[in-house]
């Protein structure tokens, strides 16, 4: 697919920056040859690398700044003191209409704080959420929030459902994604007040999303639904638990193949199949944590991502823009607000 | 190890009950030849099966009851109407001092409600927690709460830490287990109020446990600590997410081996190594969800467990008894209560 689109890059963010960022941008040009890049960062470091990348050079402009946000910086400090940082200037390029999306592999907390400040929230959305992809038995699914909000109320969860719906429509190309609320059981009475109230709101006639109901932890990898909605505390722990478990399985497998001569011989034949499995579980394939709910498109690449991972994160940002993510979420909000409450007005007043 | 101990069994609980329960008890006799079993359940179903198990017959007594708790029963209903059920009578045998521990593969919620009612809580413990084992890079660890309490306050989390400490000492044989609190980051300021306050309490000089600090989701499988403490909502979702991810990895692996002729040949050689890996990840090896915090020992076997899994659950109950779990937790409570608050009294009053 070809797309005329301008992407602002925080060239200084990420463990292997700036080289990894530039190589990622070059890789992204293969899939999106008409993309244009605004490169924010230290020109003295960028220029020598760019000199060896003629294709990327033709599609990009360097915007020099000597300042950057470190991985250790607290979000509040970065927000106050990092006004000339590569991360902030890249975000501001979106706020000012000079770019259509921003991608950074830098400090997540700082990126979230700056993006929230500079881009503002979409009308009707109270808090941003971090979303990401998961490999599943049926393909891939989207989960949010993965850590932006440690505590979430009913409205936050309902808004996350709409954001996840719009995201999976625009990036996964789903026509009517199914939405599940993560809980400790599938029965209506399970869970805390926030998830129960959010479920009853999403079940209302006229709900803008196709609500499946409650899902449990094992439903994430099973692919029971297309979008899994949860608070940032649980979501962060679930995603890291899944990563750790996949790593443990890989480690057990490696150990098992060293165990006997027979197994080593088997590896000579089956090595390709094993590599293929590890690739399918490879987080790089699913790279890109999307900052949803903002009035602009911002994608966080994993700090340890390589060029391939960063190129995928750029791809996600482009898909969001090209497929109208922001319009989609606005439509969903309009439909949510049009729901006629099923509770009689008298009772509602009493409840207030 | 040989142990003179009497175990009450809910013979009617579990998908494959009563056969699976009896076969599990027979298997357990191999490791614990001096164990005695009180078998609660329908004698007309138990007797014919037992007739073919001479070893188990010699070590057990049938206590007939025609009533049982179904998997679908609500805990409150089971508690009210199930006074003559096999589950309740098995628990009561521990409360009455006729048995030293109880094992059931039945309805978890009902087991928890009945055990709490009949056994009561240990002095100083407000709420029971469900604990289980996890395979890790370094062996195995213990995690709690896995779903008994959807919402937990600071005191609950601190008490869970003590319960996990006592449990891993008595069952895993650890001299000084390390305790981690599950959180979204390792920095002191991360997380919600309950986990931050619990951490500061566990860090106090004189704390009865060796507190490592906060751990993240990926630390579970990494084996960073011996005991992972969390609330029942997060814990339930984390354990099910890990199960689902392990199943997904196994599925991807199976698919990869079907992919090419070469891989199929490889499987002929490496099949043993792969089976070994799946075995290491097999939840049956880690069977037994312990109901901790009660004034008595109660172990829940997985409802879908087979005889081997049920035998393991019996083994855990025996280890808890023989290695003095209840005394250990009482010691920890005494040490916790002896901590002199590090906050000056004036400030404390202000905080109230």
Give a description of the structure.
With 352 residues, chain A is of the alpha/beta class. Chain A has two domains: 185 residues, Isopropylmalate Dehydrogenase; 152 residues, Isopropylmalate Dehydrogenase. Chain A is built from 14 helices and eleven strands. An eleven-stranded mixed β-sheet of chain A has the order 3-2-1-4-11-10-5-6-9-7-8. In chain A, a hairpin with a 5-residue loop joins strand 10 and strand 11. Chain A is globular, with a radius of gyration of 22 Å. The C terminus of chain A is likely disordered. The interface between A and B is large, with 62 and 61 residues.
Summarize the structure.
The structure is a homodimer of 352-residue chains. Chain A has 352 residues and is an alpha/beta fold. Chain A is built from 14 helices and 11 strands.
- Identify the overall geometry of chain A: globular
The largest pleated sheet of chain A is described as:
11 strands, mixed
As residue ranges, the low-confidence spans of chain A are: 344-352
Question: Helices and strands of chain A: which structural class?
Answer: alpha/beta
Biggest contact: A-B, 62 and 61 residues
């Amino acid at each position: 697919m070809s797309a005329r689109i301008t992407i602002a890059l925080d060239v200084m963010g990420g463990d292997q920056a700036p080289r990894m960022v530039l190589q990622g941008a070059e890789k992204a040009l293969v899939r999106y040859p008409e993309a244009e890049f605004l490169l924010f960062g230290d020109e003295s470091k960028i220029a020598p690398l760019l000199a060896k990348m003629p294709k990327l050079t033709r599609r990009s402009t360097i915007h020099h700044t000597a300042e950057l946000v470190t991985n250790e910086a607290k979000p509040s400090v970065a927000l106050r003191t990092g006004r000339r940082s590569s991360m902030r200037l890249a975000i501001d390029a979106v706020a000012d209409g000079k770019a259509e999306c921003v991608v950074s592999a830098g400090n997540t907390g700082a990126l979230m704080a700056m993006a929230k400040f500079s881009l503002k929230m979409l009308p009707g959305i109270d808090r941003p959420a971090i979303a990401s992809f998961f490999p599943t038995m049926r393909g891939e699914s989207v989960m949010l929030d993965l850590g932006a909000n440690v505590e979430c109320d009913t409205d936050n969860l309902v808004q996350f459902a709409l954001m996840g719906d719009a995201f999976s429509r625009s990036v996964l190309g789903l026509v009517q994604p199914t939405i599940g609320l993560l809980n400790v059981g599938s029965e209506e009475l399970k869970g805390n007040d926030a998830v129960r109230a959010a479920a009853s709101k999403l079940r209302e006639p006229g709900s803008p999303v196709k609500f499946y109901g409650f899902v449990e932890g094992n439903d994430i990898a099973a692919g029971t639904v297309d979008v899994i909605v949860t608070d940032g505390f649980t979501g962060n722990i679930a995603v890291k638990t899944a990563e750790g478990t996949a790593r443990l399985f890989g480690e057990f497998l490696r150990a098992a193949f060293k165990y006997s001569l027979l197994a080593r011989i088997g590896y000579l034949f089956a090595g390709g199949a094993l590599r293929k499995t590890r690739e399918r579980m490879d987080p790089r394939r699913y790279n890109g944590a999307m900052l949803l709910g903002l009035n602009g498109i911002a994608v966080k690449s994993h700090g340890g991502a390589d060029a391939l991972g960063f190129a995928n994160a750029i791809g996600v940002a482009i898909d969001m823009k090209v497929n109208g993510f922001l319009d989609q979420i606005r439509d969903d909000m309009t439909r949510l607000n049009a729901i006629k409450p099923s509770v009689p007005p008298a009772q509602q007043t009493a409840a207030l």
